[in-house]
Write a structure and sequence with these properties.
Keywords: Heme, Iron, Metal-binding, Monooxygenase, Oxidoreductase. The protein has helices at residues 11-15, 18-27, 44-52, 62-65, 67-70, 80-92, 96-114, 125-142, 149-164, 170-196, 202-208, 218-249, 251-259, 264-274, 306-309, 354-371; strands at 30-33, 38-41, 57-58, 122-124, 210-211, 214-215, 280-285, 289-291, 294-296, 301-305, 376-377, 385-386, 392-393, 397-399. The protein has 411 residues and is α+β, with helices and mostly antiparallel strands. Helix 8 packs antiparallel against helix 12 and helix 14 packs across helix 16 (354-371). It is globular. Bound molecules: protoporphyrin IX containing FE. Protoporphyrin IX containing FE is lined by residues 59, 75-76, 87, 90, 94, 227-228, 231-232, 235, 239, 277-278, 281, 343-345, 349, 351-353, 356-357.
Length: 411
């Protein structure tokens, strides 16, 4: 930025990064952050280039950023035939018939979790509902016991903190590694049982799938499970809460979605463009790379700023407006490799869970909207978001018309 004191690691930036995106795109196309010796890119065109030029920009940085807590190499680190095969296994676990069963799990968990709040007419969509919902649904999909939700959430918190922290203290690092070890110790006997008696869940599929004629090792399966747990849980409650916040803040669009729920996919896609829950994607530059005269040196860590790229006027007209009808959104392609927004990344490592994320958010929102009549922000609640790497509301207290117990028809 023009101001040499500006820092992405500052409290001001953390409070509202969106205020700084235009300045970064226009005046500091390649922003260097000396404290962590990393480079930040904010233009749509530059971010897309980094994510799709797999020779020049690799995921090698994940060896230190993710592998220690994933207890093995994650999908995003792999390339070539190994990546194609293992990615295929995960995709199969989240599409077709498997997806139908998962949508049922989304419905059941929504009904169970929202029921106690309906007669009260008040709920915090993040802490009362979204967080437990995201974990429970993912546990269901994987075939893990939902009663372990609190414990697994706590371990996942440590794993997520390790991956998403830009400056981890040695004490926090130890804590995060401890969480990862405990999560691994919890998963190992489950994997053993699924190998002996496979079921219809994703862990069984991972255990029985073959790659190059060889079954995946326990280490492979463990890393993939932790990969899916973190990747599926971390953005889910954020996406849901951001969707509701934007709709409540735009009552006209909320009324349209209520009247015509087929608009929900557009509202979800626009939420992901406007406020992507994954704000940073790291890569390593394998050779010197030039962006408009500024050079990112070989070996450097590059962070793609998804929030800034998605607000780039070169890619979207009036990018700072939330508009579910925007002509340049392309709802149908927003959850595919052809998406114009970059909330799911781009290229080889683009999110494998995009179709599931859409089905999950659409299902839960379609169930919640009719139940939360006259939904509005609770009086006096101060809205705050947190997170540089993944970002979402800290809380979203909502008021709505109370529903008499038993009148919701959720059984
Ligand atoms: C709204 C929800 C979601 C968002 C915003 C999101 C975002 C992303 C992004 C930005 C990437 C690219 C990472 C990179 O290029 O390094 C990614 C990759 C990935 N996501 Fe998602 N994700 C979501 C939901 C899910 C779900 C539900 C799953 C469950 C399967 C999932 C599994 C993965 C996996 C396994 C990868 C790595 C893929 C690869 O390297 O080939 N994600 N996601």
């Amino acid at each position: 930025m023009a101001d040499p004191r500006f820092s992405i690691l500052s409290a001001d930036f953390a409070a509202d990064p969106y205020r700084y995106f235009a300045g970064l795109r226009e005046r500091s196309r390649v922003h260097h952050e000396p404290a962590i010796d990393s480079y930040f890119l904010s233009r749509h065109q530059d971010v897309k280039r980094v994510l799709t030029d797999h020779e020049a920009f690799t995921t090698r940085t994940l060896q230190v950023r993710a592998e220690p807590v994933m207890r093995g190499p994650v999908l995003a680190q792999m390339t070539g035939a190994e990546h194609t095969a293992k990615r295929g296994i995960v995709v199969r676990g989240f599409t077709g018939q498997a997806l139908e069963g998962q949508v049922r799990a989304v419905r059941d968990n929504t009904a169970e979790l929202v029921a106690p709040f309906l007669p009260r007419g008040r709920l915090d969509l993040v802490n009362d509902f979204g967080k437990p919902f995201a974990v429970q649904v993912t546990l269901d999909v994987l075939g893990l016991d939902k009663r372990d939700q609190r414990q697994v959430s706590a371990w996942l918190g440590g794993v997520g903190e390790f991956i998403t922290s830009l400056d981890l203290t040695p004490e926090r690092r130890r804590h995060c590694l401890d969480c990862a070890e405990r999560l691994e110790a919890y998963l190992v006997p489950v994997i053993e049982r699924r190998r002996r008696r496979p079921g219809a869940d994703l862990i069984s599929k991972l255990c029985t799938a073959e790659f190059d004629g060889i079954a995946m090792s326990d280490r492979d399966v463990t890393a993939l499970i932790i990969n899916v747990l973190v990747a599926a849980v971390e953005p889910a409650d954020k996406t849901l809460a951001l969707l509701f916040k934007h709709l409540i803040d735009h009552p006209g669009q909320l009324a349209q979605v209520r009247a015509d729920p087929t608009l929900l996919p557009a509202a979800i896609a626009e939420t992901l463009r406007f406020t992507p829950p994954v704000q940073l994607i790291p890569r390593q530059a394998e050779q010197d790379a030039e962006f408009g005269g500024a050079v990112v040196p070989a070996g450097a860590t590059v962070f793609c700023m998804i929030g800034a790229a998605n607000r780039d006027p070169a890619a979207f007209t009036t990018p700072d407006a939330f508009d579910i009808h925007r002509a340049d959104l392309g709802t149908a392609r927003s959850f595919t490799a052809a998406a114009q927004h970059l909330a799911f990344g781009a290229g080889l490592h683009q999110c494998v869970g995009a179709a599931f994320a859409r089905a999950e958010t659409e299902t839960v929102a379609a169930l919640l909207l009719p139940l939360l009549d006259q939904v509005r922000h609770s009086p006096g609640a101060r809205y705050r978001e947190a997170g540089l790497y993944t970002r979402g509301p800290v809380a979203l207290p909502l008021d709505f018309t109370p529903v008499r117990a038993g009148a919701a028809g959720l059984d």
